[in-house]
Amino acid sequence: MKRTGLLVTLGIVVILGFWGCNGYNGLVTADQDVKKVWSNVETNYQRRTDLYSSVIKTIEGSANFEKSTLKDVIEARSKATSITVDINDPKSLEAYQNAQAQLQGSFSRLMAVAEAYPDLKTTKSFQDFQTQIEGTENRINVARQDYNKSVEGYNLKVKRFPRSILASLFGFKEKAFYKADAGTEKAPDIKFDIK
What we know:
mainly alpha
């Protein structure tokens, strides 16, 4: 009788140990996946920043170009590239996202001003930029979606019972999603002034 109780207890300990190791390893795997996917997001933003840098050099060489608009882009680029993201800190992710949105906004204003410079629009580097930036923006969008999907899988592992017990024991916390830029939830007000 005593031996049977010992075997049952030992069996329960082995099962719990196996479950604990498996659960912990699942959390570690999900955490590493989120980090890898976030790295893809950063890589695509870096590609965009590099493209912006090359076209900025082209624009800087253009005589009489509006220097204040160009200066805004250079400052926004500097801010966007100086932020280090900790994907475990939602405020860090939000700051990065805001800086990227500011960079994109200031660059859009720069492109609008560039329309007034026909000589600039015909340069090969400017034309190459316009071709490459569209693909880069699509890559960024896909990378952000992949990141959110990875975060969703991770967060489900962290929050679902009984794995949530292991997550709290080992310090695995819910991660923030990449959110849409502020104001994008509103449909644009488009007016056609056709007469």
